[in-house]
Amino acid sequence: MKQTLKFSAAITACTLLLLSIAPLAMAGTPIQNTWAPEGDRVGLENHWALGFDALDSYGSATKTLEDWQLGEEYSGYGLFSYRRAFGPDRRLSLRGYGTNADGKDLTGRFVLQAGCIGKRTLTLKHRGYNFFSDDTSEQRNLTFAAGPVPDALDTETGMAWCRNDVDLRYHVTDRLDLSVGAMRSVRDGAKASLLRAATGSAVPGLKTFDTEIMEFRWGGALALGPFATDLRMSYRTAEGQRDLDDRHLSTDDQRLFTTRVGATYDIAPDTRLLGHFVNSKLENDGVEVLGSDSYLPGVEATTNAGGLSVVHALGSATLINASARFRSQTLETRSDLDGVTRQYADRDRTRQEYRIDVRHTGIQKTRLNGYYRFQSSELDGTTTAGANVLPGNVETGDFQTTVQEKTRQELGAKAQYRLGRNTRLKASLIWTDEDVNQTDTWQTTDNQPWYYWLGDRTTTQLNWRLALHTRPAKNFSLDLGHQMLDRDFELDGAGKAQTSWKSQRGFAAAYWRADDIFTLHFNASVGRDQAELVDGPETADSLSPVAYDGTTWRMAPGMVVQLSARLQLEAQYETVRFEDDGDDPTGLNKLSTDYDRTTVRARYRLLDRISTTASYRRYVFEENRWDDTINDIYSLALSGSF
What we know:
By secondary structure, the chain is mostly beta strands.
């Protein structure tokens, strides 16, 4: 496996070298998306493409499905984009992409938009995918050591997902707009589940889904001089079943009704008042089966949220935005068995936020932005279990009560300074402080809480970014920058502990285009993340991830060469190297990962508007455990514009 990986790197290096010394002649065609399917383009040009892929895969098939969603040895794809104007005000837009690379059925996306400018617009959307998810191998291994391969599920964990949307907007008059819409989303398939007991080499469980969500929405917008308002309402239902290895069967029967109201009022030419209010109510009358017992969970949740803000222009150089928001939620859940309520929970949470933003452009060559935000929230909840534990009954049963108060402050600033005609310096700084006071009390049969709680805790974080954007020549740009995050988490509840997290990253990006013949782009970054637990409980050496020290290197060079009026070559390579030493001196739990992605393709223009493309892609993942993969994809495509 490692020899094959080395051979892959050699192929990539040789390919890039050959492209760099290729004869350069004639002007080139527009560059397409580097990692997109052959034939896909950015812009308003009408285009289409048909392609065929052949996959040659090595290593862990589950990892290939998990990372790349590639499951077919031979597959095809098609894409198109079409826009047309009918007269001065009518427009039609079609765009779609479909493939069977992620499963036997055709999946992808299709969007249709048609309408008359200033009168009506109809939008239809379809999205469907086959998604594979079985990421339990790393979670079931208690250490990072390269031990035996954990047992896998016998069944592929494939999940079919499909969503359809329709939206119609109608401009009745210059003051009134109306809109209606509908959505349907379904899931059918399975994914892996740890089942809590599936650790080490134990086989994980299988969680199956067969669910459907339907939503209907309607609304309108009204403008009366300096006043404007809009109303949106929606009704959503969720039905279906979720089954966890025949241990836990959930049948959903949910209903959600939401109302949104927004308004703006121009108080003066330089002052605008904005407000919004949202109300939603959720109900669930489903059934849950645990073993031989069938529970009837009743859920009622009501949420109210709103906000008010004032935007004021102080002269021509300063803009001030002051806002306030609130949110309250009431949640009541009950679980009935044999006509008797066995568990009841009541949660009340309120939240407020106050923020002020200031933007200033009055200083020559300088732009300044700053803001301050203060948030506070309160949570009061009680869970009671027993026999007939509804409020008001004499028997209260066992209970656990949570009382939480949380405050959060955030101060941020951004600045941009133009050093020269083609040089800009950008900087940003964000400081946050969060303080949580939480108390849990309980009265249970075994004198133990049902739910884990952290207690009082404080989080302080500093995040800053510095970047230099330069353009030394007409067709050459160079960007350099640095990012830093420093976070401290202190626990002062059931047990004292302090965790520090420090992350730094330096990056560079360069772009050079020489006479529309040769184009080179390069991205690189190096980062280091460190986490340390101080004054925490004693841990065994096998749990070294508690002390984390990881370094990540990334490089992504690429180039485009126009060899003739008809022939264009492209190459793109990305490599990521990660290594975590932790604090284990033996190196047993050291984790190292290599990730490589390569694309090489040649495009030949057969006619003025038709081209053929041959490409080779390689995806490589190597880790010092058991889930290495190599995926070679050979493609042939025919594309054109019209």
